[in-house]
Amino acid sequence: MNSSINEIIKILKETYPDAKCSLDFSTPFELVIAVMLSAQCTDERVNLTTPNIFLKYRTPEDFVEIDIHKLENLIHPCGFYHTKAKNIKACSQKLISDFHSIVPQTMNKLLTLPRCW
Known about the structure:
By secondary structure, the protein is an all-alpha fold. The longest helix is centred in the C-terminal third of the chain and has 19 residues, at about 80-100. Helix content is about 65%, strand content about 0%. The protein contains seven helices and no strands. It has a single domain (about 25-110), classed as Hypothetical protein, domain 2 (Endonuclease III, domain 1), CATH 1.10.340.30.
């Protein structure tokens, strides 16, 4: 099965050599937050919203400590802000408690994180 996965990856890389993530981020944690905000929202809107957020809030600890209403106001332009804020805080807390504030590198562990999709 591993060879099948490797073959699929090879085909995708050959077919889409210039593929890249359209979300702007500078750390794996910022990508997690941007992906959560992108649910039912355009990447363009997320990219307009996150720079101001990431200037002040950069770590899971920052997002755990922010007041939920303040977070909702910051992410309001991305829609579904009540649910997204609740899940961003829960995801941040799980990263702290279960992964020492480091975004896990395996799909199985990533899927344990609270998410908005």
